[in-house]
């Protein structure tokens, strides 16, 4: 009985943590092709330091990754709050994995409703020419 109660509590907590994502209705997919770059993007976004400026309020950082077939994956972390901070690596991974799983041609999401960051995956045609540009 204890295991069942624990499982129910865990599921309620996990569901409460998921923030709805916004999926694109048109675009180049599949987003799952970009999944292999999620950890690298989130790790680099969270490693911001004095040598790499933190993301200012209402600004974003982005990276572009080339796929072997000539397409690219743009990733963006947008800071929607009035603070300057780096995104949380695990929150970034959680949000982007949900988007990759649920949004066939790209989209954005948060790890929690109160998260300062919105994370975006946008698969596109053509190779990267530069990192994804801020959306501020």
Which tags fit this structure?
Glycan binding protein Y3-like domain-containing protein; alpha+beta; globular; 5-stranded antiparallel beta sheet
The overall pLDDT average reads: 79
Q: How would you describe the shape? A: globular
CATH architecture: 2-Layer Sandwich
- What is the fold-level CATH name, i.e. the topology? Killer Toxin P4, Chain A
Question: Considering DSSP H and I runs of 4 or more, what fraction of the residues is helical?
Answer: 25-40%
Q: Please state how the strands of the largest beta sheet are arranged side by side.
A: 1-4-5-3-2
Estimated share of beta-strand residues = 15-25%
Number of discrete helical segments: 3
Report low-confidence residues grouped into runs of 5 or more: 5-16
- Structural class based on helices, strands and sheet pairing: alpha+beta
Query: In total, how many domains does the architecture comprise?
Result: 1
Rg for CA atoms: 16 Å
User: What is the CA–CA distance across the termini?
Assistant: 51 Å
Give me the strand/helix succession: HEHEEHEE
Q: Largest beta sheet, briefly?
A: 5 strands, antiparallel
CATH C-level name:
Alpha Beta
SSE topology:
Elements: H1 2-17, E1 22-23, H2 38-46, E2 60-66, E3 72-79, H3 89-102, E4 107-109, E5 117-124
Antiparallel strand pairs: 1-4, 2-3, 3-5, 4-5
Helix pairs in contact: 2-3
Kindly describe this structure.
The chain has one domain: Killer Toxin P4, Chain A, CATH 3.30.430. The chain has a five-stranded antiparallel sheet, with helices on one face. Mean pLDDT is 79; it is low at 5-16. It has helices spanning 2-17, 38-46, 89-102, and strands at 22-23, 60-66, 72-79, 107-109, 117-124. Helix 2 packs antiparallel against helix 3. The chain is α+β, with helices and mostly antiparallel strands. The chain is globular and about 40 Å long. It has three helices and five strands, in the order αβαββαββ.
